[in-house]
Write a structure and sequence with these properties.
mainly alpha; single chain
């Protein structure tokens, strides 16, 4: 924990101070200073669509994709195969997915 803030959304008290503190923390985070390749965005969008519609190889009741389905999505998004694992780990690090290491 870097800091604790008391603030009010009703009065706006200390909101600017809180926003500056967030900016100072984000500024030093290496992942936030990078521009992501376009295929990251298209890959993320495709995964969200698969989860939302429960199509392809998503198991009923759980938004789980088998490795072959991940590869098909990556191919459609022009995500190089050697970057799939790194991309999944990136999305896991920002809370978008949970990546389980298996038999890829």
């Amino acid at each position: 924990i870097v800091d604790v803030f008391g603030l009010s959304s009703a009065t706006g008290s200390r909101i600017k101070h809180f926003a500056r503190a967030i900016e100072s923390v984000v500024r030093v985070q290496p992942k936030f200073n990078q521009q992501l390749p376009e295929y990251y965005t298209s890959f993320q969008t495709a995964l969200v669509r698969l989860q939302a519609h429960k199509i392809d190889n998503i198991q009923k009741g759980a938004p789980i994709l088998e490795w072959e389905a991940i590869e098909r999505v990556a191919d459609k998004c022009h995500l190089p195969r050697d970057e799939i694992v790194g991309t999944l780990k990136f999305f896991e690090s920002i809370g978008e997915i949970v990546y389980f290491v298996g038999n890829e």
